[in-house]
Design brief:
By secondary structure, the chain is of the alpha+beta class. 16% of the residues lie in helices and 28% in strands. The chain is built from 17 helices and 50 strands. A 6-stranded antiparallel sheet has the order 1-11-10-4-8-7, with no helix packed on it. A 6-stranded antiparallel sheet has the order 6-5-9-3-12-13, with no helix packed on it. Strand 19 and strand 20 form a beta hairpin. It is globular. The N terminus is likely disordered.
Length: 969
């Protein structure tokens, strides 16, 4: 066992480099040569650590048995000793761990909760462990099972507190047993079965490589007790850590001087960019400083060789101070104060569940900072409220009041509140058992927010309630759900034209992983439309989007589906295309798009606020894999589009994010309520309907001759109002064997006119999608997305398209469907039933097929069609799906195995479903031993296939959840 001890006065060193020493020091590194020689200057220590001159004294190694076999389990033990008084309120103990393939960790006999720190195939597991430790001897026990090939365990335990840092790692001092020890995990290691663990090699060796999450170079977060100028200078070195890291024979002085030259050049470019702004500012003093530094940056090679490190560092810092002064004089930074939230990482990384009250970690509040600097005056607005959790606030149009969501630690849910900008007159607006989050002011005087009030659950995360968009009066009364969906909506923001920009998750007949993209909606819930990305795998989840002033573009955070706190920033221009890579600019290219690109561990961005298309307030954390429940990493920065980034504020104990200027802003127009429009057009048939109009369904329907489309089918995705632990493919109950499915209900069909036009009344407030059918009611093309209408809404679409909902103006011209009133839906023969296998398929098989395809009959050797229950599903359902007899979309398997084109890009007409179904062919053609089922049975088979082969409908679900309510939206 190796143990290293370092001293520190910092109370909050998270993921600290072991040999880095942070103590209060006088002045900056410039002129601190004596301190350098004494080895006590903190910034010099940091520089040497980042540049590789200071090595970690304790590096973890992979350990295992000397001989590895398949299906092998190993048990490991080691004791560590903590001196009396080394544990206290300020202690942070973190375990970094990987076990190949599966493992459990115990500290003092108690199981450690492990959490993934990244989404890569191999991932370090991070756990908060201080509550499990004690003064004196502590036992660490690990059991690990490997399935195939070489197995291994690697771990690092850090204990940080005000007295210093202690580190223990896996090495040859660990004990190994290849038999289950008696009394495990509370056991001794003195028996004959115990031997020294075999060291396979250090982190980075094959087959594991530099697996995600291992902090080969762990990034220190500057402590709260550093002076503001020290915080800024520390931050500069951390920003440049990649360039400072060892590269061949190049010395740290050369690397530092190269960086100084680069930032000097950037300073000139920055002055040029500012000079191009409409509002002019005086930069004459900065230009003089720039010229002076230019001379200092061009010494002779002899001078460079003899130059002390502190002098090179001082020159680098002088250039960085100049560049900072220039950036912060930008004319768009014409406000004195910013509002922002502080908070701690919740007990979840997931894009949906991280915001639920059940995962919240109390701590933080709302603050106003006067002066864009760590030395600015900080004012807490929520100090009189009980301790709790906060998310994104919003400022009123006059800048005098703010909306926020807040969950006191002792209560069960987030609720909406309002207060004056000075923290006075706090008013609670909502009070319910549901989570109300991320409120924004609307031009009408109402408010809009996300809420779990829909009482629905995420389709593929059945333990998690879905957030949907809601509106309310200014006092929080008359709450109305305006979303149609069961899947979540997030982080709404107001646009200049009065619409709302938000993130929507959907996976209608597609894989669930990557479709969290941007949409727009009017404040009354009408005219939901795609903004960008509904057929794009990359970036993964687009959230926290805001419109860039004076443009049609937006800036957003591209975060991970499974890691909301790991992200990069991008800018979207939908006029250049609606899907990747068209219209997308990677604003922070040094940071990879999480989960869809390899993590470069260059930090993470969140919550951008655009001042222009060149300048932003952002949150940034140096550690892209630093997540631990209750931890923190993010500070607030000013960022420009050239990568210049300056620290505004950081509290190492809390994340600081969602910053916005405290000032008045323009009020967008109030958009007319859709019901008023419907009244004028006189198209509303009944109180709970809307109307879809399409002048030509053949537009975009490649290869389909006119006249082939006879009907349009309208399908509803039922709300998921029941919940349980995951059983199969993230589902409970498992609706489908081949992808995470919604219960589907066919609302009916409507004839398509000879010219391809259609106009139909549909139920309002529901998630709907369409299929175009031939004369036999078989699907020619499917809309693999969903849309909905508000009461009285009239919505036009152009053609049968796969890339979004292209709104078309509703004209009163030649299309036949527009020359008369909209049609009503014709219900299917089975009425309002949802589609399920046991009701739609098995009875047909029993009547027409089982007589031959049953045990004892010759045909049974090829296919047994008798009904047999399996753990989650039944036969022959699984065989019909798996052997591609049914002809359904293989959404999840295709994504996992091949990333098939049609998982996200869409499919060509007739490529899947009933036109390609062997089951439908055998049942309808008469060519399979003369079998030809009756029309009603064939209609059911076709409908089941075209619904993508679900196993359960609501009728079956209610047998397990008899009290599951129908949503009242």
């Amino acid at each position: 066992m190796k143990r290293s001890v370092t001293s520190s006065t910092s109370t909050h060193l998270l993921l600290a480099i072991c040999l880095s020493v942070f103590v209060m020091h006088e002045g900056t590194a410039a002129g601190a040569e004596a301190g350098e020689q004494a080895g006590q200057t903190p910034i010099v220590r940091l520089l040497r650590s980042l540049s590789g001159e200071a090595k970690m004294s304790a590096e973890p190694h992979w350990i295992w048995a000397n001989q590895a076999t398949d299906e092998q389990t190993c048990w490991f033990r080691r004791d560590i000793f903590l001196e009396e008084g080394s544990l206290g309120k300020t202690t942070l103990a973190t375990l970094y761990f990987v076990g190949d393939d599966a493992a459990r960790v115990f500290i003092n006999g108690r199981s450690v909760t492990l959490r993934r720190s990244s989404s890569k195939p191999w991932s370090f597991l991070v756990a908060s462990t201080e509550s499990l430790l004690k003064s004196g001897t502590n036992s660490i026990a690990i059991s690990c099972r490997n399935s195939v090939g070489q197995g291994g365990v690697i771990a690092l335990l850090e204990v940080n507190n005000t007295n210093g840092s202690q580190t223990w790692v896996t090495d040859d001092q660990w004990k190994l047993s290849q038999e289950l020890p008696a009394g495990w995990p509370r056991c001794k290691t003195d028996g004959l079965a115990w031997q020294a663990a075999h060291v396979l090699g250090p982190a980075g060796i094959r087959p594991w490589g530099n697996i995600a999450g291992y902090p080969i170079q762990r990034i220190p977060i500057p402590a709260a007790d550093l002076e503001p100028v020290q915080q800024i200078e520390f931050d500069w070195l951390l920003q440049d850590r990649r360039a400072l890291s060892p590269r061949g024979a190049t010395g740290v002085r050369t690397r530092l001087r190269t960086l100084a030259l680069d930032h000097h050049k950037r300073a000139a470019q920055l002055m040029q960019a500012i000079a191009a702004e409409p509002k002019q500012i005086d930069l004459s003093a900065e230009r003089i400083r720039w010229q002076t530094l230019k001379k200092e940056l061009t010494p002779t090679s002899r001078d460079q060789q003899s130059e002390a490190l502190s002098l090179t560092l001082g020159l680098y810092l002088s250039v960085r101070h100049l560049k900072r002064d220039i950036l912060l004089k930008h004319p768009l930074l014409d406000f004195e104060e910013i509002l922002f939230a502080k908070g701690l990482y919740p007990r979840s990384l997931h894009e949906q569940s991280h915001r639920l009250s059940t995962t919240a970690v109390a701590g933080g509040g709302l603050f106003v900072l006067s002066g864009l600097s760590p030395g600015g005056k900080l004012r807490e607005l929520t100090g009189d409220l009980p301790g709790g959790s906060y998310w994104r606030p919003d400022l009123s149009f006059d800048g005098r009041r703010l909306l926020f969501c807040y969950k006191p630690q002792a209560t069960a849910s987030f609720q909406l509140h309002e207060m004056n900008i000075d923290g006075s007159n706090i008013v609670k607006l909502t009070d319910s058992p549901f989570d109300d989050l991320d409120p924004i002011y609307l031009p009408s005087g109402k408010i809009l927010f996300t809420s779990t009030r829909g009482q629905t659950y995420v389709r593929c995360n059945p333990e998690s309630r879905s957030f949907v968009l809601c509106t309310a009066e200014a006092d929080g009364s008359q709450v109305r759900i305006i979303s149609h969906n069961s899947e979540p909506d997030w982080t709404p923001a107001l646009m200049d034209d009065g619409r709302v920009l938000f993130t929507r998750w959907e996976y209608t007949d597609r894989a669930l992983w990557r479709l969290q993209k941007l949409w727009t909606v009017r404040p009354d819930g009408a005219y939901v439309d795609l903004y960008w990305g509904n057929h794009s795998e990359k970036p993964d989840a687009l959230v926290e989007a805001r419109q860039i002033p004076g443009t049609r573009r937006v800036v957003f955070s591209g975060v991970g589906h499974h890691h909301f706190f790991q992200g990069a920033l991008g800018i979207l221009d939908p006029s250049k295309g609606l899907d990747y890579p068209h219209g997308l600019t990677h604003l922070t290219p040094e940071v990879s798009w999480p989960e869809v690109e390899e993590d470069r561990d260059t930090g993470a961005y969140k919550s951008p606020y655009p001042l222009s298309d060149h300048l932003f307030l952002v949150s940034y954390g140096h550690n892209s894999t630093s997540y631990r429940p209750g931890g923190a990493d993010f500070g607030i920065y000013v960022l420009d589009d050239q990568g210049n980034k300056e620290l505004v504020y950081r509290d190492p104990a809390f994340n600081s994010w969602y910053a916005l200027p405290v000032r008045a802003r323009s009020r967008p127009p109030v958009l007319t309520n859709v019901n008023a429009i419907a009244s004028d057009l006189r198209t509303e048939q009944e109180p709970a309907t809307g109307t879809f109009v399409n002048p030509d369904v053949y537009h975009g329907l490649n290869g389909v001759p006119r006249g082939q489309v006879k009907h349009m089918r309208v399908i509803e995705l039922d709300y998921k109002t029941y919940s349980g632990n995951r059983e199969y493919l993230f589902q409970n109950p498992p609706i489908s064997s081949h992808f995470v499915e919604s219960v589907k209900r066919i609302r009916g069909t409507v004839p398509v006119e000879k010219d391809g036009s259609v106009s139909v009344h549909v139920p309002a407030g529901r998630a709907l999608y369409f299929q175009l059918l031939d004369e036999n009611y078989r699907a020619i093309q499917t809309m693999r997305s969903f849309v909905g209408l508000q009461k009285g809404e009239v919505r036009g679409c152009t053609g049968c398209h796969s890339l979004g909902h292209n709104a078309a103006p509703i004209t009163r011209g030649s299309p036949l469907a527009m020359g008369r009133p909209a049609r009503s839906l014709t219900p299917p023969p089975w009425g309002d039933q949802t589609v399920g296998y046991t009701r739609f398929v098995q009875p047909v098989l029993d009547r027409h097929c089982v007589s031959c395809h049953q045990p004892g009959k010759e045909a049974n050797s090829k296919l047994d069609l008798t009904y047999r229950k399996t753990r989650f599903f039944a036969e022959p359902y699984l065989t019909l799906i798996d052997r591609q007899i049914a002809g359904v979309y293989p959404s999840e398997p295709a994504y996992w195995k091949t990333r098939a084109r049609d998982v996200y890009d869409g499919a060509e007409p007739g490529e899947h479903l009933s036109p390609q179904s062997l089951l439908v062919e055998y049942a309808s053609s008469g060519k399979h031993y003369g079998v030809k089922v009756d029309a009603d049975s064939l209609r059911r088979l076709v409908a089941w296939v075209d619904m993508n082969g679900p196993f359960l409908g609501r009728e079956e679900v209610l047998k397990r959840y008899p009290n599951a309510p129908l949503s009242k939206r």
